[in-house]
């Protein structure tokens, strides 16, 4: 086969449905030769186990709530039952309470903001550290953002969480670089997933994207994002870290 991830072991955290961006990453990674382990948490875990059968090869499914210190502490050992090392980790996780989204920005209370930041920002560092024991030979960590350099309708505190994630990725790149670990983000355009549906008013952002993106944009196309993540996991970006790669049809580069 000779795919670009041949022989690599990849953890994809945050797969619920086959619409999840994490599912697209796992699928392309397997097609490119990787052995993949996926995670999800809580009640949706049974859905993930069913959805896992739709991947080209049914992967191991582990439970990981990124806010649960015990889950994080046990991750390396749980992984060792399936892989002897990790070459890559994908963080495809975000959550914000409804009160933190959809135009309620000025009224949102700290506990709701704290939840958004814990799950969507701090967890990137937490996941990286939990996986580190299996990455002693170096590797690649990839996360997913939505352009946090500007304010968007409806995105609200998730936008603030993403700005934090983008900064977090740069600090992780600084501290993990000496261990041979690259840390990068893919900034995806608006895509129809459960997380996106949970943001009241986000359709407005979706509708402006396609006409303005020079390459056009299809909110049902997850493969483009999956491929970019896989490219970053591969050996074809050996000197790239602390970077944000846009997979948005070129939207971010246009002034109007
Ligand atoms: P998704 O399918 O809903 O994936 C988000 C995942 O995060 C779900 O599997 C969810 O699990 C998981 N999650 C939430 N809280 C968690 C926790 N405490 N511990 C572990 N996992 C948790 O939606 P998605 O759009 O593919 O999101 C994946 C990533 O892409 C996110 O970082 C998102 O911000 C980013 N992104 C999305 C878009 C877009 O337009 N969709 C654009 C740019 C970037 P449950 O389903 O069980 O809650």
Q: Which helices and strands, and how do they pair?
A:
Layout (H helix, E strand, L loop, with lengths): L8 E5 L7 H11 L3 E6 L4 H8 L7 E4 L5 H12 L7 E4 L18 H22 L7 E7 L10 H21 L4 E8 L5 H4 L5 H10 L10 H11 L10 E4 L9
Parallel strand pairs: 1-2, 1-4, 2-3, 4-5, 5-6, 6-7
Helix pairs in contact: 1-8, 3-4, 4-5
The structure holds NADP nicotinamide-adenine-dinucleotide phosphate (NAP).
Describe the structure.
- InterPro entries: Enoyl-ACP_Rdtase_NADH, NAD(P)-bd_dom_sf, SDR_fam.
- This is Enoyl-[acyl-carrier-protein] reductase [NADH].
- The protein is α/β, with parallel strands linked by helices.
- The protein has one domain (9-253): Rossmann fold.
- It is built from eight helices and seven strands.
- It has a seven-stranded parallel sheet with strand order 3-2-1-4-5-6-7, with helices on both faces.
- β4 (88-91), α4 (110-131) and β5 (139-145) form a beta-alpha-beta unit.
- The chain is globular and about 45 Å long.
- The chain starts with 8 loop residues before the first strand and ends in a 9-residue tail after the last strand.
- Bound molecules: NADP nicotinamide-adenine-dinucleotide phosphate.
- The site of NADP nicotinamide-adenine-dinucleotide phosphate has 30 residues, from α1, β5 and α6.
Gyration radius, rounded? 17 Å
Strand proportion, as a percent range, falls in 5-15%
Residues in helices, as a percent range: 25-40%
**Helix count?**
8
End-to-end separation: 43 Å
CATH first level: Alpha Beta
Q: Which secondary-structure class do the elements indicate? A: alpha/beta
CATH-assigned fold name: Rossmann fold
Identify the strand order in the major beta sheet.
Answer: 3-2-1-4-5-6-7
- Indicate the low-confidence ranges by residue numbers: none
Largest sheet: 7 strands, parallel
Bound ligands: NADP nicotinamide-adenine-dinucleotide phosphate
**Count of individual domains:** 1
CATH superfamily: NAD(P)-binding Rossmann-like Domain
Order of helices and strands: EHEHEHEHEHEHHHE
CATH architecture heading: 3-Layer(aba) Sandwich
**What form results from the Cα inertia axes?**
globular
What is the residue-averaged pLDDT?
Answer: 97
User: Using DSSP, what is the number of strands?
Assistant: 7
Binding site for NAD(+): 14, 65-66, 93, 162
InterPro entries: Enoyl-ACP_Rdtase_NADH, NAD(P)-bd_dom_sf, SDR_fam
Pathway: Lipid metabolism
Enzyme class: oxidoreductase
């Amino acid at each position: 086969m000779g795919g670009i991830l041949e022989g690599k072991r990849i953890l994809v955290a945050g797969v619920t449905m086959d619409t999840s961006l994490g599912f697209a990453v796992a699928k392309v990674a397997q097609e490119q030769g990787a052995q993949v382990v996926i995670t999800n948490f809580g009640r949706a875990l049974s859905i993930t186990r069913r959805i896992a059968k739709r991947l080209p090869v049914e992967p191991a499914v582990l439970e990981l709530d990124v806010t649960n210190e015990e889950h994080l502490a046990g991750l390396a050992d749980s992984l060792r039952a399936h892989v002897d090392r990790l070459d890559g980790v994908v963080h495809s996780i975000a959550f914000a309470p409804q009160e933190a989204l959809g135009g309620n920005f000025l009224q949102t209370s700290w506990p709701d903001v704290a939840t958004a930041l814990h799950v969507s920002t701090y967890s990137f560092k937490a996941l990286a550290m939990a996986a580190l024991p299996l990455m002693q030979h170096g590797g690649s960590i990839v996360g997913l953002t939505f352009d946090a350099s500007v304010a968007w309708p409806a995105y609200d505190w998730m936008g603030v969480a993403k700005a934090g994630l983008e900064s977090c990725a740069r600090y992780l790149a600084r501290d993990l670089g000496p261990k041979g670990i690259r840390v990068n983000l893919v900034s995806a355009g608006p895509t129809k997933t459960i997380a996106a549906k949970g943001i009241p008013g986000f359709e407005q952002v979706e509708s402006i994207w396609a006409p303005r993106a020079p390459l056009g944009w299809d909110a049902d196309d997850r493969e483009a994002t999956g491929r970019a993540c896989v490219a970053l996991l591969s050996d074809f970006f050996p000197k790239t870290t602390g970077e944000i790669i846009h997979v948005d049809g070129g939207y971010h580069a246009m002034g109007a």
